[in-house]
Write a structure and sequence with these properties.
Layout (H helix, E strand, L loop, with lengths): L26 E4 L1 H7 L7 H14 L3 E5 L5 H12 L8 E7 L2 H10 L5 E9 L2 H8 L3 H18 L7 E9 L6 H15 L7 E7 L6 H14 L6 E7 L6 H10 L4 E4 L13 H10 L11 H12 L20 H16 L35 H12 L8 H15 L5 H13 L5 E13 L2 E12 L2 E9 L2 H11 L5 E11 L6 E10 L4 E8 L2 H17 L1
Parallel strand pairs: 1-2, 1-8, 2-3, 3-4, 4-5, 5-6, 6-7, 7-8
Antiparallel strand pairs: 9-10, 10-11, 12-13, 13-14
Helix pairs in contact: 2-11, 4-6, 6-7, 8-9, 12-13, 13-14, 14-15, 16-17
């Protein structure tokens, strides 16, 4: 299509970044209070900003861009509040952004007087599109803007007595700037600021608009790192956006290509499609076995504070943080997760290898719980229903019983046309298996041991209601279920045989109850499961048999 043409990027046929491995976390810089804030329909109040700043410090950010103090009085006042009220930890650098324009630079310096540690972040746009449309200036004139700004910044540093000042320069729209020209401008700024190995310059290379594919962005970063004259004097920083939906990929490939620092926001808040989501990149490191260098152990809390301060919502499918990312509705997924969880529970070593299908990391490592991993709707399978019954209520149903219970729940979910709560699932189990009392209802059962030709057996005498008629039935067998079956057969209700039986306990101590599961096969070949629960194991088995019988004869 002639309307759209690919942006030209560097020619790097011998690229090496695809073979690199990210084996350590980058230097993190949060821009939530500047880039993220300016993208909000309703910018954060001072109270919101303070809460967000404290959260960022708590997470572990050592570099935080706190505002654009020359652009707004609110930003200026907020920076002053942080400094005047001594709210900045000694090991945290606040970063302030300024365009390369004299009045803005001077105002920015005024805002940070008295701060202990400051990153002075200077920028001007260098892209061909901006040169042509926004400024109508040539390459040399644009470079001179950067040089003039850098000289003024350097000259004003002595006015910040007692402040440790570091320099950062961004050729805005780096990704759609000719890469050799971007390098030329950056080196001109380096010549002015004269960085040293002890006080390196931060060269931030913004993917301000994601014009190019992520792998092409990585080519630009590698080319830049290869060709800069004094690579040892610069920290290469990334600032990716998400216009193509690949901001995370562009960042991670850029790290592979040589960048050491990353700017971004919590949950990707930013203009248009957003900034880089630092949470995703950090937790990707965790998933790779690398310490992310940030404390993200309670993602739900971080999300609540973020949503309250920004009035934005984290999408339900946002990686790691979204409500549904650790949730399975699909039956096959639920079954695999349940099996993985069961095996995991058997190995209690805290550092045991994480091996659970469909779950990239252990949700507990980021403050999520297993309560919402398996959720039930009409697409769910038998394994998911069994998992919920086990996790929430302690019922360890036999595997062969799972299809019976799954069919019950799926039928209800189809009728409701929505996700079912765990309470609704238990109520369905209770109605379908535990409380079903027609055609046979057992009112009272008495078992006694008897001797029969020197072999010990059990007699059963039960008061029942069958087809609206009260009756007493009796039988003898080698156990409670056998005795009850013989009592039923004596009444002509024996058109079945018992084919499977399981039992287990729920609870501990005086609160322990027995749960029994019975499968019967009818003379016509149909099979049906039943369940019973009682403090008496004999009665639990009998109830399970009656449950199966009633389900088969209703």
């Amino acid at each position: 299509m002639p309307k759209y043409t690919p942006f030209k990027t560097v020619d790097l046929p011998d690229r090496s970044w695809p073979d690199k491995v990210i084996d350590k976390a980058p230097i993190w810089c949060s821009v939530d209070l500047r880039d993220g804030n300016q993208a909000l329909a309703v910018p954060m109040s001072v109270r919101d900003k303070l809460e967000m700043f404290e959260l960022l410090v708590e997470i572990g950010f050592k570099e935080i861009e706190v505002g654009f103090p020359s652009a707004s009085q609110i930003d200026f006042d907020f920076v002053r509040k942080l400094i005047d009220e001594n709210r900045i930890p000694d090991d945290v650098f606040i970063q302030v952004l300024t365009q390369s324009r004299e009045p803005l630079i001077r105002r920015t310096f005024e805002s940070v007087k008295g701060a202990a540690n400051v990153i002075m972040h200077l920028y001007n746009s260098t892209s061909a599109l901006q040169r042509k449309i926004t400024f109508n200036l040539g390459k040399q004139e644009i470079k001179q803007i950067a040089i003039d700004g850098a000289q003024l910044v350097k000259s004003l540093v002595p006015t910040l007595e007692g402040t440790n000042v570091r320099f950062e320069y961004s050729p805005e729209s780096f990704s759609d700037t000719e890469t050799d020209y971007a390098l030329e401008v950056c080196e001109a700024v380096m010549d002015v600021w004269a960085p040293t190995p002890e006080n390196k310059i931060i060269l931030n290379l913004p993917d301000t608009v994601e014009w190019i594919p992520a792998h092409k962005h990585a080519d630009q970063i590698e080319w830049f790192c290869r060709n800069i004259k004094r690579r040892d004097l610069a920290i290469i920083s990334l600032h990716t956006h998400n216009d193509r939906g690949t901001g995370v990929a562009a960042c991670e490939m850029g790290m592979m290509a040589g960048a050491e620092r990353v700017e971004g926001t919590l949950f990707g808040n930013g203009e248009r499609t957003g900034n880089l989501d630092i949470v995703i990149v950090a937790l990707n490191r965790l998933a790779d076995g690398v310490d992310p260098g940030l404390d993200l152990h309670d993602i739900p809390r971080l999300r609540r504070i973020y949503e309250r301060c920004t009035r934005m919502s984290v999408p339900a499918r946002q990686p790691y943080a979204g409500e549904l990312v650790f949730t399975a509705f699909s039956g096959s997924h639920q079954d695999a997760i349940k099996k993985g969880m069961d095996l995991r529970d058997e190995n209690t070593a805290p550092d045991a290898a994480w091996e659970v299908p469909y779950l990239l990391i252990d949700p507990r490592d980021i403050g999520r719980t297993y309560e919402s991993i398996v959720r039930i709707n009409s697409q769910s399978g038998k394994g998911g229903v069994a998992y919920v019954m086990s996790r929430d209520y302690g019922f360890e149903m036999p595997k062969l019983m799972h299809p019976d219970m799954g069919a019950v729940v799926n039928r209800i979910a189809d009728e409701q046309g929505r996700e079912l709560t765990t309470t609704e699932i238990y109520e369905a189990f209770n109605r379908e298996f535990l409380q079903i009392d027609k055609p046979l209802e057992v009112r009272r059962t008495i078992f006694n041991y008897v001797n029969n030709d020197d072999a010990r057996s059990l007699s059963c005498r039960a008061t029942v209601r069958y087809a609206d008629s009260d009756q007493i039935i009796e039988g003898t067998g080698n156990g409670p279920i056998s005795a009850f079956v013989h009592a039923m057969q004596a009444q002509g209700w024996g058109d079945f045989r018992l084919t499977d039986f399981h039992e287990h306990a729920i609870g501990q101590g005086a609160e322990t109850e027995a749960v029994a599961y019975v499968q019967i096969e009818l003379d016509d070949g149909r099979r049906c499961w039943g369940a019973g629960i009682d403090t008496n194991i004999d009665l639990a088995g009998t109830k399970a048999l009656v449950s199966a019988y009633n389900r088969a004869h209703r």
